[in-house]
Structures are given as C-alpha cells and as structure tokens.
C-alpha cells in the first residue's frame, strides 16, 4: 500500500460511537479504490493508484475482516436507528471489495482490474484545484502505470476468460490516446505543464504496449470461456452489492414478468402503427421507422444538448420532482479510452466536490475509422427517439438530477459514500417510464417505442446475467436473447452479451426500477397522499441506498 498518510475525510455527520470506526472503514476502502474517493470529490487521494500486489491485498483482506468483526460487535449494539443503518452501509462497503478479492478473484481473472484503474479524466473535467495541482496528479498516475500493470502481468492466471481479455485489449488500446489527450490539456494550461505530462508518458505507454502484447500474444490464443460466477457466488453478489436476500430464482422471475409486460406493450404500439401486419413485421417496421430518424455524425452531440433542454423544461412543467439549483449540464463526446464500453454516460459532481454542480453528459460519437455501414448502424442506434430517452435517463430527471439531490441530502459519511448501482440505475431507468406516464412525446408514440425498447434491453440484461452466471449460458445464447427479445441487430446484441460476462451487475437497471415501482404501488396513496413529487423527493432524500433496504427506509424502519 502507499506509504503516504491517509488523507483526512470531510466533516459530515455526527461525532458519535460509530464515527471513529466509520472513518477507519472509509480510509480502508479508499486505500484499495483511491479512484472512487476522487470520484466522490475527496481530492486528498488525487494521483494515487492502488497497491494490488499479493502481500498488500492479503493485508487489506485481513484488516477488512477485522473491521467487519468490529462493526458487528456488541459495543455498537445500542446505536440509534439511523446510525444502525449507516453501520449496515459500512458493512456492505467492506464486503463488496472483499467479495471481489476473495470470491470472484478479479485480480487473478480480469485484466480490466488493472487497465480500468488508469483514468486521468477526473483531473481534466473539473477545475476543482489550480491546473498545476491537477497536472501533478496526472503525472503521478502516469508514473505509477508501469508498476500497476507489472503487478497485473505477474498476478493474472495463466488462462483468462476470453471476453475479459478482449475487452481489456479494447480499453488498453485507447490509453495512448487518453494520455495524449491529457498532455494536450496540460499544454493548454501551460507549456511547462505539458512537458510534465510528456515526460511521464513514455514509460506509461511502454508498460501499456507490453501488457497489450501479452494479452494478444499469450492470453488471447489460450483464453477460456469460463467466466461464470456460479449460483452461490451470484446470490452473494446480490447481498454485497445491494443488501438483498431475494433468491436468484425470484429475481429472474421478476425480470421475465417485466419482459412479458413490455413485449405486450410493444406489440400494441406496433400494431397501432402498422395495422394488418403480422406482429413481428409490425415491430420491425415500427423500429425501422425510428432508426431512420437520426442526426448526422456532426449533429449528434448538439442534438443531445437540445434534448437536455427539452427534458429540463418538461420536468419543470410537470413538477414531478424537485430540481435543486443551480443545475447546469454540458454535453461532450465520450473520452476516447471510454468508448469501448459506453454509448452515453453521466459524469456528475461528487458529493464532496466544492466547485459547483455542473454535470457532464457524454455521448459516444461515430468513429471516423469505421466503415460507412457501421457508422450508419451506430447513428441508427442513437436515433432521435432513443437519444431523447437516453437523455431522460442520464440527465433530467435521471442521473444528473439524482446526484444534485445526493449532494444536498446525504447526511453522514456512510450515506455520502455509499452508491448503490441498482438504486442509481434503477432510478434513472424508472424515470424513462415516468416521463412517458407524464406525457413526454405526447401526440405520437415514438417516445414510448424508444422507452419500451430500452426497457426490453434492461430486462434482457437481467435475464442474461442470471443465465450466463448461474445456468451455464453461452455467449451465443445471450446474444440470441438480445436479438430475439430486445430486437437488437447482431453487433450490439453481441456487445451486450459480452458485457454480461464481466459485469453481471447489469441486472441493476431492472432490479432497481422494479423496487421503486413496487414501493410506489404500495405507498403512494397511503403514505404520500398520491403526490408523486413527495414520493420522489423522499426517495432521493435517502442518498443512494441498497435496494434491499428500500422498503425499510420508506416505512421508517
């Protein structure tokens, strides 16, 4: 581990019996994941890379287990209910990386654990400190890259899952361009700063090239299809990520039921558009019409910006949820190194960032090196109706608005640092349906077609995740699921199937959405007087809790 002292943590929440242990736990978590601390806005961790050597992670595991014993000890048995909940969050914050290290063995099985830890983006996108300080952090990251990647080269198993190798190659192949982007950014701030980054690049790039050579030459020819967690570890995954004891079979049943509901609605919309056509032909014709209405490559980002303003106006007019001000979101192209894994994403302000509330909405552009057919296919997938739906998900009232609430309402260190994927993605996915219910795209059905299309995708992600990791599914079986049920063309269907091998948590969209809808069904009338705004504001006031705790929180338990 780093020999530098652990940075101080922000003063948030009470100084009580839990507080010293709360701080110990978070420092321990950030020691393994300094990039997470930087994302949250705790910039004492700037420029740090984790020590992933076996002695260091063995020590981390031993101390993590000791911290869990103390969290569960009798001396904390009399905590007030809200702090008892914080203690549960702290347990999950420790259990989750402990699972990754000891049960799923990510550092031995997945090269993305190493190449994915290298990001200079946080130091470029927000001016939270003077440019020299942020460039110094970038330099320290670059200087640490050879050591980090050499750790990976020594630690990885001899045979690795094929999808993990291929995605790692794609990510690593984008790092040179990412480092160049950082140098250009630094030069714009000062010639001397540019030289600082330039001096650190050669050793980092050499290390990336050596890893790429090994991935392509040694690992890829001998890669294995063995990526699955298995039923027991998958059930554990639901607990450590989401505090959920729901049996995997029940999760799968809920996903299949939602898939059927969305398929029925799609059939209704398609037959309304194309009466007289057989159902499958009507669906194909309906989506075909959507795909044709897309922006040009040059207009893709400006079109997304137009939809941001449209979504904000819609949210304000419908008064569905409070909009904290100031709220400013800019739209940019996805950084080069992140394009292999992302169509669109939100870079929100962290809860501890002090320089403003600006969000950055990334949209992945067409790659000019692609053949014309593939470029057109990408633009078809980002047609107007679907780009509007993506914008609702990523910006208003989805992720960006959610993080504006998160910055203002998280009341303790534990709640300010715990981020549930199923709550976060579930809220954003729920907002897509909410927008349609509130009348987005009224006067036509294109908006709802896009919303149902994306709901089918998220349903298929949940089903594919369970199938790939607990039922022995092959990549081909998962690909066919996305083609058949989500109506995807072959290339994006394969991409979705591959994602499920290394990211089984992509069940989070549907899992979280269904939890929110279930809570709304049970409590909207009785607890919130039928007010959607009160329900939504209360929900977002909890921070970003594990969905397994949602019922208890809403019922005041």
Could you explain how this protein is built, in words?
This protein is mainly alpha-helical. The chain has 26 helices and 3 strands. The longest helix is centred in the middle third of the chain and has 29 residues. The mean pLDDT is 94.
Q: How is the topology of this model organized?
A:
Elements: H1 19-32, H2 34-40, H3 54-71, H4 81-102, H5 106-109, H6 112-115, H7 122-125, H8 131-155, H9 162-173, H10 175-189, H11 191-219, H12 231-242, H13 248-273, H14 279-292, H15 300-318, E1 329-333, E2 344-347, E3 359-363, H16 372-381, H17 384-394, H18 399-409, H19 413-417, H20 421-437, H21 446-470, H22 475-485, H23 490-502, H24 508-528, H25 532-540, H26 550-554
Parallel strand pairs: 1-3
Antiparallel strand pairs: 2-3
Tally the beta strands.
Answer: 3
* Mean pLDDT level: 94
SSE class = mainly alpha
Low-confidence spans: none
Tell me the series of helices and strands, N- to C-terminal: HHHHHHHHHHHHHHHEEEHHHHHHHHHHH
- Overall shape: globular
Q: Can you tag this structure with a few keywords?
A:
globular; 2 domains; mainly alpha; 557 residues
Précis, in short:
The chain has 557 residues and is mainly alpha-helical.
């Amino acid at each position: 581990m780093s020999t530098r002292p652990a940075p101080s943590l922000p003063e948030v929440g009470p100084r009580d019996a839990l507080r010293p242990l709360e701080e110990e736990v978070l420092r321990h978590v950030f020691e393994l994941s300094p990039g997470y601390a930087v994302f949250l806005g705790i910039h004492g961790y700037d420029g740090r890379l984790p020590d992933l050597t076996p002695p260091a992670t063995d020590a981390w595991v031993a101390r993590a287990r000791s911290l869990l014993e103390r969290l569960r000890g009798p001396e904390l048995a009399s905590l007030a209910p809200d702090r008892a909940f914080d203690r549960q969050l702290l347990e999950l914050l420790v259990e989750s990386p402990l699972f990754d290290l000891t049960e799923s063995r990510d550092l031995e099985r997945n090269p993305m654990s190493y190449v994915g830890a290298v990001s200079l983006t946080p130091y470029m996108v927000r001016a939270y400190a003077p440019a020299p300080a942020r460039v110094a952090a970038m330099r320290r990251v670059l200087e640490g890259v050879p050591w980090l990647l050499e750790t990976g080269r020594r630690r990885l198993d001899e045979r690795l899952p094929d999808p993990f190798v291929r995605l790692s190659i794609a990510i690593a192949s984008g790092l040179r361009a990412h480092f160049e982007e950082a140098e250009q950014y630094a030069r714009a701030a000062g010639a001397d700063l540019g030289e600082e980054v330039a001096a650190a690049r050669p050793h980092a790039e050499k290390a990336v090239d050596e890893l790429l050579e090994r991935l392509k030459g040694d690992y890829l020819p001998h890669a294995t299809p063995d990526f699955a967690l298995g039923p027991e570890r998958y059930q554990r995954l639901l607990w450590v990520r989401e505090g959920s004891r729901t049996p995997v079979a029940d999760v799968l049943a809920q996903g299949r039921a939602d898939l059927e509901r969305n398929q029925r609605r799609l059939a209704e919309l398609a037959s309304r558009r194309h009466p007289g056509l057989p159902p499958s032909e009507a669906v194909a014709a309906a989506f075909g019409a959507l795909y044709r209405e897309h922006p040009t490559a040059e207009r893709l980002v400006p079109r997304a910006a137009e939809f941001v303003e449209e979504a904000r106006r819609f949210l304000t007019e419908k008064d569905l949820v409070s909009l904290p001000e100031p709220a400013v979101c800019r739209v940019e192209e996805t950084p080069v190194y992140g394009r292999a894994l992302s169509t669109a994403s939100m870079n929100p302000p962290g809860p501890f960032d002090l320089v403003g509330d600006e969000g950055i909405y990334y949209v992945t552009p067409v790659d000019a090196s692609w053949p014309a057919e593939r470029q057109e296919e990408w633009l078809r997938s980002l047609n107007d109706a679907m780009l509007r739906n993506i914008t609702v998900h990523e910006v208003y009232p989805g992720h960006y608005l959610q993080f504006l609430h998160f910055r203002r309402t998280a009341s303790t260190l534990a709640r300010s640092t715990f981020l549930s994927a199923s709550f976060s993605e579930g809220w954003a996915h729920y907002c897509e349906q909410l927008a349609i219910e509130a009348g987005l795209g009224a006067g036509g059905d294109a908006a709802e077609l896009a919303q149902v299309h994306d709901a089918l995708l998220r349903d298929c992600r949940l089903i594919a995740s369970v199938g790939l990791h607990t039922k022995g599914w092959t990549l081909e079986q998962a690909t066919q699921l996305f083609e058949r049920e989500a109506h995807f063309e072959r290339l994006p269907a394969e991409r979705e199937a591959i994602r499920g091998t290394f990211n089984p948590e992509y069940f989070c969209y549907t899992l979280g959405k269904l939890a929110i809808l279930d809570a709304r069904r049970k409590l909207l009338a009785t607890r919130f007087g039928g007010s959607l705004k009160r329900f939504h504001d209360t929900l977002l006031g909890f921070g970003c809790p594990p969905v397994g705790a949602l019922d208890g929180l809403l019922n005041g338990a």
